[in-house]
Amino acid sequence: MGTKRKYFDDYDFEESYQKSIEDMKQDQIERYLKEKRAGIAYQTKTTKAGDQLEADIYPVFGSRKDAPRTKRGNKSRPAQKNLNSKRARRYLNNLVSANFGRGDLWCTFTYDDQHLPDNPDEADRRFTNFIRRINRRRKRAGMDNVKYICVTEYHEEEGKRTRCHHHVIMSGDVDRDELEKIWGQGKRNHTRRIDPDPETHVAGIVNYISKDPKGRKRWRASKNLKKPIVTKSVCRFGKRTAERMAKDRAYLEDRIRKSYPGYKFIDAEIRINDVNGGFYIYARMVRD
Q1: What structural domains does the chain harbor?
Q2: How far apart are the C-alpha atoms of 246 and 196, rounded to whole Å?
Q3: What is the reported pLDDT for 214?
């Protein structure tokens, strides 16, 4: 009876593979494949979040010494709830996709000059009290606590008071007029129903609320959210298949479609590691 082969995958593949394959010519890619056949297999990490599916395909190694030198592990959840990294925004996108969709609410809550908080921490306390008031009303009506994700955006300028507002995605079973009445700290509020894009699902909303070079942002979420479902496999794509996918975009798209029936291919990116070799493939799909 054979012994199950062990693989070392406890390294940060997103940090390790930074150079885009688009920066290389075809002959360079072919030479790279011959000279730098890194790893002993390719592992696929699949993240299912509502109607969205992501696949990370990356090398695994026979031992720690062969793997890229990075901080240990690849934490899917950011250690701090800020939005200053691509990984944090990706995690936020998956969390939104796993919990919210058509008919739920996308809201913006603002402060007028009379209610302007002194700093972001005070704004967070005000928002916490806002959620408590909503949940008290829901409890009286026999309803569960509201589900939400909040991104607080704030602008800080020397000599001026900090300006804050909150972007919120929450359960659709809340009356929009009642929400604005409960908030009561600013009049330039906006609530709308989510209508997911067929190509990007809710990614467009998440990108909008998480990217803005003019301000700083941090986020928080209710404790009753579903977590994205993550699975790993070293059997889905063999090493030669993964390397062919990396150099042949049409082949990549075809293999992704065949491997994930019921999902529509949206986009993919391919990166390399010049030191340890190998490719990292990221592909995103939505339910067809």
Answers
A1: 13-76+228-287 (no CATH), 97-221 (3.30.70)
A2: 30
A3: 62
